[in-house]
Design a protein that fits this description.
The complex is a heterodimer. Chain A is mainly alpha-helical. Chain A contains 14 helices and six strands. The longest helix of chain B has 30 residues. At the A-B interface, helix 6, helix 11 and helix 13 of A face helix 4, helix 9 and helix 11 of B.
Chain lengths: 354, 308
């Protein structure tokens, strides 16, 4: 199959064109089943963005970050504070998203700087602690000056808009009904594409190779002349900025955020996506994110009615199934297929041959 | 009332719980260099099982309160040991030779699974501790100490002495120390390494069960999410004392409890109410980060080089 693609480049382009058409048509197909599914898809793309960001840290550089959702939170709060009635600021999104990414990046470096000397498992706990600290601050910074509005969160966040074109309102273009979520879908798809390209380019760049060298053997990498501290900080910063951008878009799409969205479980969720798909493999990670976003939703729509039909009431709540899926994904993948469903070649060698 | 002394007493109470949980982390880490992420959940299961038994006994039998609590604890210990053993056998043992990231990720997964299963068994609502222990309060130099606080501190001291005796005075203890120094060589010397590691997990889990009963009794409730934060703080305590070091875990636990209590008592006054006691949970992590940055080996730990 792969050989055929190489010998017939036309076949490859045709395949890509087919995928592109499918992706463009997708939201309209989903919309016939209900706008909910478009929203689910949008969230899935957001999670794919997050998973790509975390993949830089965990997959490429091999640093286990359990507080990743904090950067998502920083991006989301940056957007919410700069585009909502909270401070009566209404900056346009193309200014805020970079600010959010930058803020997240700064936090990433701040966290990384003192902790990167630590060995892997300590790093995991410290990042976890950091994630909790950030959440506690979101929760409590309503006093003495009300910044984050505490546990109530920030609501009425501005949607994204370019001039008069608002992403949240539905309008009819060329006879097709573009609802808010569908517009966001295309925007998210675009951002995801850019993110994928950036990641693919990073992977085989000088930095990407340095990350992988550190992951394989830090001492050897250092001996090869890699400034490990700088390169690790770079991984933290870059991973964090992806989180920041995803967070900003999340705030804009939802229109409401609260500290509840940035709890430890969310970090674990993103980690499960990376692990399930295959740490270090960009396509694998995206597949992982999509799987773990859609399967729980599908289960919600099938298991829920099935239980009611069979037993007359709910025995296992869909939310519990979702969490069990994440937990089991982490456990079983490590035990039986440590390199993920779609392993990266290098990573596979590392995780299995030892 | 003397606030300072009162906070010290409260801190020591909570610190004893941290210390007991921290011992579980530190023993496992000392022997196989694994952060047993699911340890906090074992504490939770201990509290839940004990509360179920205690609640039933208190409602249906005329037994004296002390006996009821003891039976509850006695029921929690085998449940937790079984979970500890199962975790080691199915989740960690197959990964003992894998890169260190692998068992850590499995542990996180196990923790989530345990939490969800507990939720399915005991529901989302917290279990309340029946009002059976008389709420006796004793004055101590301007502050007060309750009967429960005395019981918690005493129990943890007894447990610490017992554990020290096991590790330094028994054959199993010798085997444990040998395995932690060098597992393959210990194996050559006739130590059944798998048994020793399993035993370590089980002892840690038994301690966790008692800690679960202690913390549940102290706060009066048990909840399926109670384990994660407690586990994290206990881990911070273990690192503070020097991970892998038994005395360190005890010291770290007590210290962390006192620091937290004092911070909760004074932070509001010191910072003009900008940071109140609602930031209490931040403290454990701040301590953790500070220790790891300035003295990664902890207060009592030995400095060891990078083990690749």
């Amino acid at each position: 199959m792969a050989d055929k693609l190489k010998t017939y480049p036309a076949l490859r382009w045709a395949g890509l064109a087919l995928i592109a058409c499918a992706l463009i048509a997708l939201p309209f197909v989903l919309a016939t089943a209900g706008t909910t599914w478009v929203r689910v898809t949008n969230l899935a793309i957001l999670f794919a963005l997050l998973a790509l960001g975390l993949n830089i840290v965990v997959g490429f550089a091999g640093l286990l970050d359990l507080g990743y959702i904090a950067f998502y939170g920083v991006g989301a709060y940056a957007y919410a504070l700069l585009a909502s009635p909270q401070f009566n600021l209404h900056l346009p999104f193309w200014i805020i998203l970079p600010i959010g990414a930058l803020a997240a990046c700064v936090f990433g470096v701040l966290l990384g700087a003192p902790t990167l000397k630590l060995r892997g498992d300590y790093l995991a706990i410290v990042t976890l602690g950091f994630g909790e600290i950030v959440r506690i601050f979101f929760n409590n910074l309503s006093q003495p000056v009300n910044i984050t509005n505490g546990p109530q969160g920030i609501s009425r966040i501005d949607p994204m808009r370019i001039g008069d074109f608002s992403f949240s309102q539905s309008e009819v273009i060329l006879g097709l009904n573009f609802s808010g979520p569908i517009k966001y879908y295309y925007l998210l798809l675009l951002v995801l594409l850019v993110a994928i390209v950036v990641n693919l380019r990073l992977e085989n760049s000088r930095i990407g190779r340095a990350w992988q060298a550190i992951r394989e053997d830090e001492v050897a990498a250092q001996a090869m002349g890699i400034n490990t501290t700088h390169v690790k900080l770079l991984a933290f910063g870059m991973g964090a900025s992806f989180g920041g951008i995803a967070g900003g878009m999340f705030a804009a799409i939802q229109g409401f955020i609260s500290p509840e969205s940035f709890v430890l479980v969310e970090s674990v969720m993103v980690l499960s996506m990376v692990v399930l798909g295959g740490m270090g493999n960009i396509w694998g990670v995206i597949v992982g994110a999509l799987l773990l976003s859609f399967v729980p939703e599908l289960l919600r729509h099938t298991v829920d009615p099935m239980q009611r039909y069979l037993f007359g009431h709910l025995i296992i709540e869909p939310e519990v199934i979702r969490m069990l899926l994440f937990g089991l994904a982490l456990m079983l993948m490590m035990l039986f297929r440590p390199a993920g469903l779609w392993p990266s070649k290098v990573r596979k060698r590392e995780l299995t041959d030892e | 009332m003397d606030i300072f002394l009162q906070q010290i007493i409260n801190g020591l109470t909570l610190g004893s719980v941290y210390a007991i949980v921290a011992l579980g982390y530190t023993m496992v880490y000392g022997i196989i260099q694994l952060i047993n992420f699911a340890h906090g959940e074992i504490v939770m299961v201990g509290a839940m099982v004990a509360f179920t038994v205690i609640g039933w006994l208190a409602a249906n039998t005329p037994l004296p309160p002390l006996l009821i609590v003891l039976i509850g604890t006695a029921a929690a210990i085998p449940a937790c040991t079984a979970i500890g053993y199962a975790l080691e056998l199915f989740a960690y043992r197959p990964l003992r030779k894998a890169p260190r990231l692998a068992p850590l990720i499995t542990a996180i997964g196990a923790s989530i699974v345990l939490q969800q299963v507990a939720m399915m068994i005991w529901s989302r609502n917290p279990l309340a501790f029946p009002q059976i222990i008389p709420n006796m309060v004793f004055p101590v130099a301007g502050a007060t100490i309750t009967l429960i606080q005395i019981a918690i501190i005493m129990t943890s001291v007894v447990l610490m002495i017992a554990l020290t005796a096991i590790v330094y005075r028994t054959k199993l203890g010798v085997a444990m120390r040998a395995t932690s120094q060098n597992a393959p060589i210990a194996g050559l010397m006739g130590v059944n390494v798998n048994h020793v590691i399993a035993a370590t997990f089980m002892i840690g889990a038994a301690l966790a069960a008692v800690a679960g009963v202690m913390v549940g009794t102290y706060y009066g409730i048990a909840h399926y999410t109670m384990g994660s934060l407690l586990g994290l703080k206990a881990f911070c305590a273990a690192v503070l004392g020097g991970i892998g070091n038994l005395a360190g875990a005890m010291l770290g636990g007590m210290l962390l409890g006192v620091v937290e209590a004092l911070a909760a008592g004074y932070m509001g006054d010191l910072t003009n109410n900008v940071f109140g006691s609602n930031y209490q949970d931040v403290f454990a992590f701040m301590v953790l980060i500070a220790v790891l940055v300035f003295r990664p080996s902890g207060l009592l730990g030995e400095r060891i080089g990078e083990r690749a």
